[in-house]
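Dock hypoxanthine; give full complex structure.
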Amino acid sequence: MEETIKYINEKTNNFMPQIGVILGSGLGELADEYCDTAISYNDIPNFIKSTVKGHKGRLVFAEIAGKKVVMMQGRNHFYEGHSMQEITYPVKVMKKLGVKTIILTNAAGGVNPDFKAGDLMLITDHINFMGANPLVGKNDDTLGERFPDMTQIYRKNLINLSKKCAENLGISLKEGVYLANSGPSYETPAEIRMARILGADAVGMSTVPEAIVANYCGLEVLGISCISNPASVAGGEKLSHEDVIKATDGAKLKFESLVVKIISELQG
Ligand code: HPA
């Protein structure tokens, strides 16, 4: 960790971000628009390399609406074969850099029948269905406690702030529970029916490990899903990664304006 932080601080001239953002599939353009310094994951000591199309793999530092922000343009996934500990390392790095609030974003399948492609959903809670937990292993007491409370990962104050920002911009928002599967296969119709029974509104393959670690190390978490498709239904449309990326394209502008507005309104 020391080596990672030292390298980043050298590259950024000790830029101390207050806000961290992880940009999901097809949502990375915010980091093209706002970019003061960009570092490829490949160059950062102890970072893992991003392999998925539609994910760039850069840590981007920028000032947005007067706030210092660090963005991950592209994330690493469990389904790439990395460990839970590896994919959540960047969250710990953000914490060490001084981040207080983290905005986690993703593209997700809509499980709630009221959701359509292009909707934005504030994550109110999650279900970890990945079969693994990033906190397994020896606990680092300097970061957080062994058995962290999980009663309110996605902070009510940030959800309320986001709703106000959306209203201000004339953007309608959904809210709901995000269920994470390991992937990389999409779900079967039976699995989606199960997810609905379990209380999920959206499904995806990311975010939950990062949310667990962020909550564990005391970061305030906000989660936003871009619904890219109705999740798998019997007799429904086939799903492809290309279609998921395309669908997020349609929501990109409102997603970006919402995130920028939220950043501008965040305190501290
Ligand atoms: N399932 C899982 N992950 C996804 C989906 C989906 O339908 N859409 C985008 N990411």
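Observed: The chain has one domain: 2-265.
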